[in-house]
Each structure stands twice: as C-alpha cells, then as structure tokens.
C-alpha cells in the first residue's frame, strides 16, 4: 500500500552555488552542499518519496498500486489517467482522486515468493497444479488418459526427479525450467512475461530484445514490491559521478522551470552512464555519446536536465573560461530569460571564436549581462545574436588577416573598411558564414536582411562594451570606432483591424462555448481570448496577467492592470469591460484553488496571519493563467505557442483564416476613434504613447483615411522654404487643438491638387493668380500648400515632365522643362518622408483622391475647410 507523504516545500530550501568557492576542492564543495540534502537523497539505494513534486512515482489515488507514466502531468497511473480523461472535461482532478477506486496490482513481486513444493515424496520442485510439479502433473495426466486413477498413480510412482536450478533472474525464487536467449534459465512465469513483452514491443526473441527486457518495468515489478519503483541505485558508478548525480537531483527539484523525472528514468540513465564508463557529467563529448545512444527520449531529457543542474558543482568560472564555454550558473546567475519562459540548458560554446582575445571578450560580455539586475538582463535570443556576431568577426579575421587576427593591436580603420566590403559581398552573394555551433543544418547559414544588421550591431556592442571597461588595448580603438553602421530595414506592415462581422463571430457566446470545450486542461483559453478581444493588449501581456490583475476603482469602475513589456511599463491600468471583469473574477478563484492545492502542505503549517500573507503575495507573483504542463510550482504562464495552437484550431473550425491576435489592437483603436474617443483614452487603452502610432491606427479607417492624409501639409514650391512640413495630425489631435487652430488659416479651400491659404479667395473671384496656382508666368503661388493626399498626383506629373524633357529637341528646351520642376523636388521628397514617418505613405500611394477633370473652383469644392472639421 502506498501512503501519501507530506508535500515538499522545495522553494524553502536555500540554494548553495558551489561555483562561488573556486578555491575549494570538489570533495569539499560537495561536502558543504550535501549538508542540505534530504534524508532520502543520501541513502543507497535512493528511495524517492512516492508523491514528490518532481520525482514522484506513485498514483495519487489512495492505496492504488498502479505505476505513474512519465508523461502524465496529473500523477495518475495509466488506468486512472484514462478514466479521468473520459470523465467530465470540467471535472477537477482533485474531485476525481477523492472518488476513484484504487487498483490492485497483484502481479507486483510475484517472483519473490516460492510456490509450495510438489506433493510427491522426495520431489523438491515447485508445484504448479493439483499440488504437483509440471513433470508429475504431465505424468498423472497421461495415466488418467489411459484409464487409471490418481490414487493408483500415486501408489505406483517411483520416479525421483532432481531439483531444478533457480531462475537466473536475480531475486526470483522460482525454478528455472526454461532456457533464455543468453543460455540461462528462467521460470515459467517469467518466460510467459517475456513472451508477452515481445508481443507488446513487436520484437524478435534475440539477445538485443532480451537485454531490453531485463531493464523493463514489467520485470522490475515482478522482482520487487511497490516501493521498489521508487528506488534507484548509484553503486555501479564512480564515487565522483555519484556525488554529481545526488547534487543534480537536489538542485534540479529547486528549479522553477524543470522537467519531471521518474525513478525509472533515473535508473535507465544510470545504466547508460555505467555502460559508457562515464566518470563525470562535465565530460561534454562523452555525455553527447551517451545521449546519442539512448533510444528513449525521456532518458535523454533526464540526463540533459541532470547535467545542467550539476554544472554549478562540476565547473567554475575559471575552468569554463579556459575551456571556452559560458553558462550563467557558473557565475552565480539565473539563466537568461526567454520570450516563451523556456530555460536554455546547453551552454554557449565559444570555441568557434579562434582568437583568444576575442573569445575572452565574448565570455566576459556574457558574464556582465548575466549579472545585470532582473528586468535589465537581455534575453537568450539577444545573447545568441551577440555571440553569432563575434563568430562572424572571428571568421573574417581568419580569412583576411595574415596573422589570423590573433593580435588586436594590429587592427585598424583599414580592417574595418575591409570588413564592410566583405560583409556586403557575403550578403549580396549569399556566401555561407561562420556559425556558433556545429549542429547539422539543411542549408548553410547566410546573412539575411535582418542578420546583416543585427550581427554587425552585435560586433559594435561587444567591442564598445569591452572598450568602456578598459579590456581592450588602445590600439584597437581605431578599429572599433570605424566599424560600419547598417541601418534597420523598415518593419513589416502592421496588422489591419477585423471586419465587424468577423469580430462578432469570434466573440459570439456559442463560439466561446466551443473554445471552452476545447480547453481540456482548463487553462482559460476562452478567458484569454476575450481579454485580448475587448482590452486590446498584446498577447504576451494578456498571457502574463498576474493573479491580482483586476479590481474596482472609484465609483465601482472595473479596472485591469497589465505589464506593458514592450515599453517596460509595470502595472499599467485601463478600464475593464464588465463581462471580461466578471469572467476574470471566476478565473481568479480557479487559479487560487490550484495554488492552495499545490502549496497545501506549506500552508497547513502556517498561522492564519502567515497564510494570509503568503496568499497576498500570490496576487503579484503568480500568473492568472498558469500552464498545465512542465509547471509543477504553477509559476509559469501559458506560453504563446500553446495558446496559438489551440486558438488556431478553434479559428479553423469557425472558418476564419489569416487572423492574428495583434489585430484586436487595431480593431479596438479604430472602433474607439470612430466613436469619438479622445486620443488620450485610446493611448491609455492600447498601452502605447506615440502620436504616430495613434495616427497609424486611425489610418486604417477607410472613412477617415483621406482626412488624415489631408492633415499632413508641406509648403508649396512658391513659398519661402519649399517642402517645410507645416502641419502633422498629432498637432491637431493633441491636447490643445486650439493652439494649432490659431497658427493656420481657418478658410483654407481645396484647389488644384492642394490647398489655398489665401483667405479672400471664395469661388476664385479674388484670386491674385487668376486661379493659376502652379502655372502662373511668375511661378507657383506662395499660398499654395500640398497635402499628403496630393503626393501621388504631383509625383506622376513630375515624372511625366522628366520623361518629356528627355525627348526635347535641344538642350535649352530640356533645361527649361527641368528648371520648372526643380523647386518641386524638395517639396515632394519632404512630404514623402513625413508620410513615411507617420505610417501613411502606403495609403497615400494607393489613393487617387481627385482627377484632373474636376473644377476645383466649383461651389462644391469652394466650401471652406474649418480646422475643426479636419480635427473631427
């Protein structure tokens, strides 16, 4: 019978980083750390607790003897896990456990107890049926078949059978009646199990299959009791490796992001280490051989996790730097953060950087970044980019320096110029570049539009960082300061808002119920989507909501607080849609229930005040939507990949395609603007503070597109400073639109593909240029202004004139035509740049606002445009 033990409070165990004592021997460092080990960890063999949060192996159903599968996150045996999956999808796993019936595994340990001996006198073989051994039972059957009786047979039996040798499987008490593939003998029970195992795995009865059977859980269960499932012996390993594994087990269960490892997986991993005669987990090449030879993915994952956890004991910062690899743990830091809350377990191998001075700079850069305070540390992806840049620089120096670049004092501006030329050739001709690892790839890596800029920027950042800390020689400064600057390419088009009908489909109650039905783990998929749809946050901000993210402000106004990670703004509060607020209240209670169950053992030992203090701390530290897998402490939110996978299947079932979560921001922005919401409210709701970004969202409104383009004014070719940007939308949409109104003429009217700012012009009767805005003999009118809506018209006119000038009969005629358009160049160029900065250029290029057939002094077009109309 398995009895549930008290839950472990792994977070309460302090972590000692052995690498902080580089002067101590390995044995002394291990001795210091081992003082914190749990009692079960120092035993031989190790007896893992049945329901340990990380190494648990017993079914959570009381008195159940079923084995827990390594991939079951509910800690249930196979049969109970299947029963739970077939139960009510919304049923709580704790309710199922309390009502489930235990499973009796009567075959566990059947080989440990010998059957009674044969009832025939002087026969010491085991009885199989009727109290007789197999040979005597067969003899009796033949006698009965001939018509005899058992009494007569017993009276006349004279054969005295010799005793059989015991089953060759260690621990089995039965007679070895049958041969094994390796020449040994096994009992009939194990032979029957062996044949059943072969049928299950679909193999042939050869030596390889026999070796696999000897390590199977079926055989292990037959030779031990229920508690044997939780045992793992390290006696076959060298003493140093045993110490490393015990430390790794101790360290691994304290990591927030950890994989679950069963004792069976640990036993298989120990066997693999023993077969390959591994002396230390720090032997990277040998460990890679072990991982490659392991066919079981769970064993590979377990060994990788243990090697990662033991790294702070097996290595120091000095040894890591000498060997050319870096891991934050060797300098006492946490792993670099990642966008999907994953933890990189492999170290950065820097041996591809062949120049020792450059490799040391890269290693010290990684150390400095790892030791930055929380919130300022770069992501693992950023560190990877910096190291890739260093590898590319190393490859360039090897190829284009006679000395291979080993002497930094000889590098100068000429080498920086050569690097720019070579860099451009690599990018233009798609020449393969050096890379950080030797992992086989389908295609050789080349510089892309993005990596061309990122890797060069990484080189500058690495060398400048080292220069600022006086780690480089003064002679290298000329090379560092002459490194080329590669500009960032324009970003991809931003998502457009959803159509009204499409949005209504995605928030319809019936469709939300379908999304809830697909949420088998009850992580809150429907709640996440509704928050995203109605609150307009970024999907990362929605998934990262904390448990205490909602509340009431003022006169019972629901509010939601989220972290705007893009702008590094913490706890940004916005009004919350009431139905969303009510759903999040229910989600809060579900998450609190999960946390109370997970930390029930710890909470039960606290006083009411202390318990309340712990639960209050959850409000700011625990996620509202904890993921259901690989999250034993409930500290990680649902990943974007997991949400998009389920959400995408739901969209597909609704017939919706090509939709991105970010489109909800554009949808909310345009909806607010179209309904007259002030810009300040829109910026608050969307969590951005850029006027240009606000104009971008407004630009997607087809009804107001022309209006926004007309709010960009450039001085015409007849003004004092042609091309000067006179007006931007932000100046009209700002907090003080009256100030903008005072600076411009209130009676501007549309004229020949532009605006006239001369007040007395009404219907053209008082126009000093006789309505010739751009074709007067003395040049364009000084009151003529171009808007963003007129850009494409005038660019087409200019290009047509240039084309006409190419066919002029003589150079004088050609120069005359070109001189007429020379003042327009600065106007059109500046207007194009302004529209590009505001995100309106694409729409301006698509717009054909007016045609040349319109009479711009027709009463329809002669109506004055008030600034208030432009402001909307």
From TrEMBL:
It comes from the Bacteria. One of its GO terms (biological process) is DNA integration. GO terms for molecular function: DNA binding. Residues 493-714 form the Tyr recombinase domain. Keywords: DNA recombination. Pfam families: Phage_integrase. InterPro entries: DNA_brk_join_enz, Integrase-like_cat_sf, Integrase_catalytic. This is Tyr recombinase domain-containing protein.
């Amino acid at each position: 019978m398995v009895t549930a033990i008290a839950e472990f409070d792994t977070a309460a165990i302090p972590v000692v980083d052995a690498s902080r004592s580089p002067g101590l021997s390995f044995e002394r460092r291990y001795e210091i750390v081992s003082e914190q080990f749990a009692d079960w960890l120092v035993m031989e063999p190790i007896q893992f607790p049945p329901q340990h949060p990380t190494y648990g192996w017993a079914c959570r159903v009381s008195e159940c003897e079923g084995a827990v599968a390594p991939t079951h996150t509910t800690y249930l045996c196979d049969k109970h896990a299947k029963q739970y999956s077939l139960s009510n999808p919304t049923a709580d796993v704790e309710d199922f456990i309390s009502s489930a019936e235990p499973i009796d595994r009567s075959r566990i340990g059947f080989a440990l107890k010998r059957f009674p001996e044969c009832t025939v006198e002087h026969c010491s073989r085991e009885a199989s049926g009727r109290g007789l051994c197999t040979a005597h039972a067969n003899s009796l059957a033949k006698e009965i078949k001939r018509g005899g009786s058992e009494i007569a047979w017993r009276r006349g039996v004279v054969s005295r059978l010799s005793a059989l040798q015991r089953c060759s499987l260690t621990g089995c008490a039965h007679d070895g009646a049958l041969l094994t593939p390796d020449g040994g003998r096994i009992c009939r029970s194990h032979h029957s199990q062996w044949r059943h195992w072969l049928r299950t795995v679909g193999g042939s009865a050869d030596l390889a299959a026999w070796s696999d059977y000897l390590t199977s859980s079926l055989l292990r269960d037959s030779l031990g009791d229920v508690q044997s499932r939780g045992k793992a012996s390290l006696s076959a390993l060298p003493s140093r490796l045993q110490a490393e594994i015990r430390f790794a087990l101790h360290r691994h269960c304290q990591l927030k992001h950890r994989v679950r490892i069963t004792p069976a997986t640990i036993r298989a991993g120990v066997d693999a280490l023993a077969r390959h005669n591994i002396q230390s987990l720090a032997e990277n090449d040998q460990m890679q051989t072990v991982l490659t030879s392991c066919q079981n993915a769970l064993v590979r994952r377990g060994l990788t996790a243990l090697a990662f956890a033991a790294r702070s004991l097996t290595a120091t910062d000095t040894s890591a730097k000498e060997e050319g690899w870096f891991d934050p743990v060797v300098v006492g830091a946490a792993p670099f953060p990642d966008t999907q809350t994953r933890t990189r377990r492999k170290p950065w191998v820097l041996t591809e950087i062949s120049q020792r001075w450059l490799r040391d700079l890269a290693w010290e850069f990684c150390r400095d970044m790892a030791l930055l305070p929380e919130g300022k540390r770069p992501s693992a992806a950023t560190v990877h980019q910096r190291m890739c840049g260093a590898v590319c620089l190393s490859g360039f120096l090897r190829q284009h320096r006679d000395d291979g670049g080993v002497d930094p004092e000889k590098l100068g501006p000429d080498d920086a110029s050569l690097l720019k030329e070579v860099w451009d050739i690599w990018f233009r001709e798609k020449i393969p570049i050096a890379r950080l690892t030797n992992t086989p790839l389908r295609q050789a890596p080349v510089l892309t539009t993005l990596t061309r800029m990122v890797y060069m920027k990484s080189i500058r950042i690495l060398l400048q960082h080292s220069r600022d800390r006086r780690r480089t020689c003064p002679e290298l400064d000329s090379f560092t300061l002459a490194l080329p600057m590669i500009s960032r390419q324009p970003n991809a088009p931003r998502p457009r808002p959803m159509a009204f009908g499409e949005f209504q489909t995605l928030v319809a109650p019936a469709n939300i119920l379908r999304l809830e039905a697909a949420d088998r783990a009850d992580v809150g998929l429907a709640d996440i989507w509704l928050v995203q749809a109605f609150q307009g946050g970024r999907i990362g901000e929605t998934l990262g909501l904390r448990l205490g993210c909602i509340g009431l402000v003022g006169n019972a106004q629901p509010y939601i607080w989220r972290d705007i990670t893009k702008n590094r703004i913490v706890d940004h509060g916005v009004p919350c849609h009431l139905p969303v607020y009510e759903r999040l209240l229910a989600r809060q209670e579900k998450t609190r229930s999960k946390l109370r169950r997970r930390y029930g053992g710890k909470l039960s030992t606290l006083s009411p005040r202390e318990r309340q203090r712990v639960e209050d701390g959850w409000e700011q530290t625990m996620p509202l939507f904890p993921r259901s897998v690989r999250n034993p402490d409930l500290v990680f939110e649902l990943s974007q990949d997991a949400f998009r996978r389920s959400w995408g299947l739901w969209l597909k079932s609704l017939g919706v395609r090509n939709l991105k979560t970010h489109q909800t921001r554009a949808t909310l922005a345009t909806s607010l603007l179209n309904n007259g919401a002030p810009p300040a409210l829109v910026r608050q709701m969307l969590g951005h503070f850029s006027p240009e970004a606000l104009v971008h969202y407004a630009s997607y409104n087809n009804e107001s597109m022309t209006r926004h383009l007309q709010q960009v004014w450039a001085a015409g070719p007849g003004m004092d400073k042609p091309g000067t940007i006179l007006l931007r939308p932000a100046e009209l949409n700002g907090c003080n639109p009256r100030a903008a109104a005072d600076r411009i003429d209130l009676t501007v009217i549309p004229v020949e593909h532009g605006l006239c700012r001369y007040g007395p012009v009404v219907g053209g009767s008082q126009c000093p240029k006789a309505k010739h805005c751009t074709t007067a003999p003395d040049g364009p009118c000084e009151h003529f202004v171009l808007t963003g809506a007129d850009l494409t018209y005038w660019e087409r006119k200019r290009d047509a004139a240039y084309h006409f000038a190419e066919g002029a009969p003589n150079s004088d005629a050609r120069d005359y035509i070109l001189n007429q358009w020379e003042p327009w160049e600065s106007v059109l160029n500046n207007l194009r740049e302004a529209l590009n900065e505001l995100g309106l250029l694409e729409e301006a290029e698509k717009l054909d606002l007016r045609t040349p057939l319109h009479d711009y002094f027709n009463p329809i077009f002669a109506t004055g445009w008030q600034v208030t109309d432009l402001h909307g």
